[in-house]
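Researcher: Sequence recovery benchmark, item below. Answer with residues only.
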C-alpha cells in the first residue's frame, strides 16, 4: 500500500463505501460516532477482555457481534463490514476511522501550526493529509502509539485508531528513527558514581542461550553501530541500545566488563559523558529487573 484510496471527484461516498475502499487497500476501518469516539463496548467486551489493552496476550479484531473497543474492531473483512450486526453502527456513524498499525503504518498527528513547522524541519517528508487543525503525516512502518510526545504531536500506530480524512498528497516514505525516538522515555538520573566507566554486567546464574561467542560479539558490534550512526536523540538511542543488549544478554552472565566498555566507548564518542553512560546502563538494568 503506497497511498490512501482516492475519492472520486464529484462523488461523496457513504461511510460504508469509504470503509470498503479502505479495506480493499489493506487498511482496516471502523465506524466512529459523534466526537470521533468508537462505538461503546458490547457486554462481552466489558473491561476490554477482547484484547485492546497492551497487556493482553492476543490482541486483535473483535469477535463479538458488534463493533467495540476501539482499534481492535477495525477489520478488512468485507463480510464483517457489511454484516447485519454492523449495519446499525454504520447508520449511526458520523465518520470512518482506521487502525494504522493494522495496515503497517504510523500516523504522526500534528495538531497545530507550531507542530507542523517542527515536522517540516525535523521529519522526512511523506504522505500528508490535512486535518481540521493541522496535518496527518503518514509513514510506512509501525511503532508504539503515544499521545503528547511533544507539544501538539501524537503518534498513532499499533493499538490506536486515526480518523480517515480523505486522500492526501506526497509520497509515502519509511518511518524515520526520529519519530520512533519520540516515544522513548528519557532515562531518569540514577544515583551512581559519576566517574564510573563500567558497571556490573548481569545477574548471572541463568542458563546461557548463546551457543557461540560469535553471537554475542555480533550483538555488541550491532549495538556499537547503532550508537555510532545516531544522528539525533543520542541520549535516548544510547539508553534504548543498552536496554536491547541487556534484554538479550543480561541474564545469563555472558556480558563482561570488556563488552560494556565497548558500548560506553561508542556512546562517549557521540558526546555522552561517563556519568550519562552509567546512568543509562543502570536504568536499563533496573527496568529489566536485573
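Model:
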Amino acid at each position: 500500500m503506497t497511498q490512501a484510496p482516492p475519492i472520486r471527484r464529484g462523488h461523496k461516498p457513504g461511510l460504508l463505501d469509504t470503509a470498503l475502499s479502505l479495506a480493499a487497500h489493506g487498511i482496516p476501518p471502523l465506524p466512529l460516532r459523534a466526537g470521533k469516539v468508537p462505538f461503546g463496548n458490547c457486554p462481552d467486551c466489558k473491561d476490554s477482555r477482547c484484547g485492546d489493552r497492551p497487556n493482553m496476550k492476543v490482541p486483535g479484531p473483535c469477535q463479538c457481534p458488534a463493533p467495540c473497543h476501539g482499534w481492535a474492531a477495525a477489520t478488512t473483512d468485507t463480510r464483517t463490514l457489511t454484516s447485519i450486526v454492523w449495519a446499525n453502527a454504520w447508520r449511526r456513524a458520523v465518520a470512518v476511522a482506521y487502525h494504522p498499525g493494522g495496515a503497517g503504518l504510523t500516523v504522526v498527528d500534528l495538531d497545530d501550526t507550531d507542530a507542523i513547522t517542527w515536522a517540516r524541519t525535523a521529519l522526512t517528508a511523506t504522505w500528508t493529509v490535512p486535518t481540521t487543525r493541522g496535518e496527518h503525516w503518514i509513514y510506512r512502518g509501525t511503532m508504539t502509539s503515544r499521545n503528547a510526545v511533544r507539544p501538539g504531536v501524537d503518534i498513532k500506530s499499533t493499538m490506536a485508531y486515526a480518523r480517515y480524512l480523505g486522500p492526501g498528497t506526497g509520497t509515502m516514505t519509511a518511518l524515520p528513527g526520529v519519530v520512533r525516538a519520540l516515544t522513548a522515555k528519557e532515562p531518569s538520573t540514577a544515583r551512581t558514581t559519576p566517574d564510573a566507566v563500567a558497571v556490573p554486567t548481569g545477574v548471572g546464574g541463568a542458563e546461557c542461550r548463546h551457543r557461540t561467542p560469535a553471537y554475542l560479539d555480533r550483538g555488541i558490534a550491532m549495538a556499537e553501530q547503532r550508537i555510532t550512526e545516531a544522528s539525533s536523540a543520542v541520549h535516548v538511542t544510547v539508553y534504548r541500545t543498552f536496554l536491547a543488549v541487556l534484554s538479550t544478554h543480561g541474564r545469563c552472565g555472558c556480558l563482561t566488563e570488556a563488552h560494556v566498555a565497548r558500548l560506553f566507548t561508542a556512546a562517549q564518542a557521540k558526546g555522552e559523558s561517563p556519568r550519562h553512560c552509567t546512568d543509562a546502563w543502570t536504568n536499563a538494568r533496573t527496568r529489566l529487573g536485573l
